[in-house]
Batch of 2 targets.
Target 1
Amino acid sequence: MARSAAFPAKKRSILCKLARGGADYSDKSPKGTVDEQITELVHEINAIDGLVTTSSCAGRISVFLESPQRMRRASTFSAIQAGRDQESGQSDAGRWLFSSHTPLAIESERLQKDHFLSMFSLRFPDGGSSNNNLLSGIQSIALCQCIHFKFEPVILHIATASFEDAQTVLKAALDAGLRESGVVNFEPAPDGAMMPMVAVRSTGLASDTVIGYRDPSGNLMSIVDENYLRALVEMANDRFRMNGEKRDRFRYALRNRNGDIRKSSLDREDPILRKERKRAEGLRRQMAERKDKSNQVPRQQKSSGKVIEKGDDIRLEQELGLSE
């Protein structure tokens, strides 16, 4: 299928804005700019003919105060509380209390008391030195405007010039383990050709934990203590590591499917893919050696102190994906 004739103009417009950088550029992501951790990948994608990124996020830790609309749908939400929201300027949209696109420092010697509570703009209930009675002041957390601690993995939206280009991106994403990737937009271009949008994403590393609520006075109250917040941060930092590995796998998979991509001076084989390649090569050598020995001596006969079993050959073939 032919590429859209309107795509080059769209790509030029996006790349011109991207080249300005800083405050002059904004994409469609919530942050509005390209994360430093994903900048090189974005440039590599945009160097491929038929592709251009429209929004991106390298992955982030965030603390989010949800919208009061969910409370208003509950029958117990009072008109008095709605009036308080209007007087305080509380909008129907939720808001970010904290966001970071890099892991957070957790070295104990650097942390002051209530470090993460303060960082996330939360208050721990007076006398709440333990987890007992933290929710005693509210009727039900489900009827409150909740505060969430989230880890959100990498996501990229890539506009493509044709279905073939979209398929190339999608296959690379699936090869990298970004299983929830897919084509999300089939609107035709002005010339009638299709310019599919591909969302590169994975929810496997995502997490969402309720850690607090907004009380009737507007205070942001935590229902977990500092130690619990620290544990959440430690887990999120580990997910940053795994998120980076998936991001790198996508980068190399896309390179393998596009021979014309501009190579980086730091270009090298993905260490995860290299490990799998070396393992497969070792298994093939073992199977070849065992077959050579089986041609020289009967099965079940010891050779070099080892018994050559037919089951071992079957196991090696299964690991290499050669058996039916």
Target 2
Amino acid sequence: MAKLSTTAGVKDSALTIHGSLQAERLGRHLAQSGAKATHVFASDLQRASKTAEAICAPQIPKSDGNLERVEVIKLALLREQDFGFYEGKPFYARNRDSNKSGKDNHRLQHAKDPGFQDVETKEAMETRMDSFMDLHLLPVVRGSYSENDPVVMVVSHGIILSTLWRCILKQFPTQSVQLGPGLALRGGGPTALEHLGGWSNTGYVELDVKAQTSITHSTTADTAVNSVLAKKPKLNDAVLLKSLHGYIMVIKAVNCKDHLVGLKRTGGGVGSSKFDEGQRTIESFFKKRKV
């Protein structure tokens, strides 16, 4: 029997066994690539916060007693879209006799019911992400005057991360966004940067943000991005004061899943089971014991 899909936004569902393996792989991948996080922000829902903790685990060698592991800052601001009445309920199928979706038809029928809470709007999510930017992300970026630039990781959920990306993008003046070497727009054509596509579980976007004086312009990247930013509205003076005016953002990776190569979900529904932190992975039984 096929499992009925349900909506899971702010419902605090557990991290699955497969999700834990994905997070562990991502942590090792980032550590091996030399990415050492200085700031980690995560949704306070456990499937995201535990993912963040698993990603941070390999960042600092256990034998190094002089370095402290970066703290995961858990924020309600980074929770997934709130589906309101529909949290944990089945997706409603489209009625063939109606142009509206099943959810829209259901909303019309029950909007006046006592206790009915509608789905969080796009505008409300944008307000949340603007607040996260103003309170947490922008102060880190603007305050980076040390020799070592901050490395910020944000661990959250698919829908809200797409909203956050659009909020990040609007912080930059026109022509201040570049594509990294070898990164093409989706389909090779002029796809709007606002819609880079969805993220897979633990698939990540890598952005390099620097002051304009500390980065070398790429003519090829400028040409490619200019074509997709042509319709982006210019920022007025009031917006520029709150934006990253004077910075350039290079998009280095989109939905990168290199760390997931060769990883397969355990069959029989085991991979979707709740992860138990006391469990040991099969690899741990074959690790050489230190003498």
